[in-house]
């Protein structure tokens, strides 16, 4: 086939040209490797405990990730205007790899370990908006939502495989070897970017590049991302102590959640291509609200698994659909601001919301807190569904 024929076939499949189709798969592989490294965060409490830290200090080291993650997510649009989305991805992978690897030498000192964790957070905060901007630039509108949703399955797929690999390494060889193993994955991801074409840099504005995102049409998707992140953050922070008194293992919830999330992003995303983004995102948020509601009354492991599956289905479509919705109508070099805003809203919900949630839990308990969060977020989901029905009509 001629190059023109290859480009035409790729265009019909949803890509800007034949090379972009190959780049799509390279970016997906790079994201899987990066996310595999990042998912080792679930084992850091054990790693710090085996290194002799007490519970309070471990909590401080774990929470420190939030500061640089949110800060660099917020700054990602500005960074992309300076160095471009592809270089931003590479910088994120380098920071995460160095942050993990440096813990081999800093683990024994709280101050030095804190610096390593902060560097790790730089990579976590920067990678998602940069990779999403670059990935979306490889696509045309033919199957935009579908391909973005399938791409985003790389994150939960990594969460399904990384903890078991990391736990094996930690148990057999100790925390330092686990850090080397985790950092090796992000190095593989960095190598995947060697053949990628860089994007033209957005026009430098001298700001955090939020000017393109300061529009009322972004208010609803940002609220949806904040709500989805809040529910996801609560699940990771507090579902375990909520289920433990009822004798329910956390694995019932999270194995079901991860399985449903992967299936949702790969299996059902093809069917949502023609649906209104606010409608499908609102349904996804309501599924997440249903998850917290079911978990509040879970009396059996199977009920906890149903709650986890509901969270997985909800999150499987929420972030990629809302991200695509916010990018609609913007050129490839105009998306940095809205994608940094989208990621910031989601990460703020994940990392910042657990702090006020702890205060609420202390006053009304786990179950009532879950119901309160579900009720507030359900209102946002209902508004999105209503907006989606109006757009469709």
Structural features, described:
- The protein has 15 helices and no strands.
- The chain is mainly alpha-helical.
- Helix 10 packs parallel to helix 12.
- The protein folds into two domains: 173 residues, Growth Hormone, Chain: A (Up-down Bundle), CATH 1.20.1250; 181 residues, Up-down Bundle (Growth Hormone, Chain: A).
Topology:
Elements: H1 3-13, H2 18-38, H3 44-50, H4 55-83, H5 85-106, H6 110-137, H7 144-151, H8 154-173, H9 175-191, H10 219-243, H11 250-268, H12 277-296, H13 301-327, H14 336-351, H15 354-392
Helix pairs in contact: 1-2, 2-6, 2-8, 2-9, 3-4, 4-5, 4-6, 4-14, 5-6, 5-9, 6-14, 7-13, 8-9, 8-11, 10-12, 10-13, 10-14, 10-15, 11-13, 12-13, 12-15, 13-14
């Amino acid at each position: 086939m001629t190059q023109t024929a290859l480009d035409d076939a790729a265009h019909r499949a949803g890509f800007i040209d034949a090379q972009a189709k190959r780049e799509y798969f390279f970016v997906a592989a790079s994201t899987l490797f990066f996310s595999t490294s990042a998912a080792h965060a679930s084992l850091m409490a054990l790693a710090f405990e085996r290194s002799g830290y007490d519970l309070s200090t471990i909590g401080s080291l774990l929470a420190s990730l939030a500061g640089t993650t949110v800060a660099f997510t917020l700054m990602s649009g500005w960074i992309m205007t300076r160095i471009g989305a592809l270089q931003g991805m590479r910088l994120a992978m380098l920071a995460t790899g160095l942050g993990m690897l440096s813990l081999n030498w800093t683990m024994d000192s709280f101050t030095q370990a804190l610096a390593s964790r902060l560097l790790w957070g730089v990579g976590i905060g920067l990678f998602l908006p940069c990779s999403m901007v670059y990935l979306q630039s490889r696509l045309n509108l033919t199957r935009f939502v579908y391909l973005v949703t399938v791409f985003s399955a790389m994150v939960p797929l990594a969460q399904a495989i990384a903890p078991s690999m990391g736990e094996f390494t930690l148990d057999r060889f100790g925390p330092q070897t686990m850090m080397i193993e985790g950092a090796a994955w992000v190095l593989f991801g960095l190598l995947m970017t060697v053949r990628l074409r860089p994007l033209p840099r957005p026009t430098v504005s001298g700001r955090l590049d939020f000017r393109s995102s300061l529009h009322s049409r972004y208010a609803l998707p940002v609220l949806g991302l904040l709500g989805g992140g809040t529910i996801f953050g609560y699940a990771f922070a507090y579902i375990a102590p909520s289920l433990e008194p009822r004798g329910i293992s956390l694995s019932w919830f999270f194995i079901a959640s991860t399985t449903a999330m992967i299936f949702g992003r790969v299996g059902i995303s093809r069917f949502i291509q023609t649906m209104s983004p606010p409608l499908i995102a609102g349904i996804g948020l309501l599924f997440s609200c249903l998850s917290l509601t079911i978990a509040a009354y879970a009396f059996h492991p199977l009920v906890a698994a149903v709650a986890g599956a509901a969270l997985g289905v909800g999150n499987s479509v929420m972030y990629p659909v809302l991200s695509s919705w916010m990018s609609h109508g913007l050129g490839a070099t105009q998306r940095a601001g809205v994608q940094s805003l989208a990621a910031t809203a989601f990460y703020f919900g994940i990392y910042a919301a657990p702090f006020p949630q702890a205060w609420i839990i202390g006053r009304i308990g786990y179950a009532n807190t879950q119901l309160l969060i579900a009720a507030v977020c359900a209102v946002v989901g209902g508004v999105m569904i209503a907006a989606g029905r109006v757009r469709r009509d």
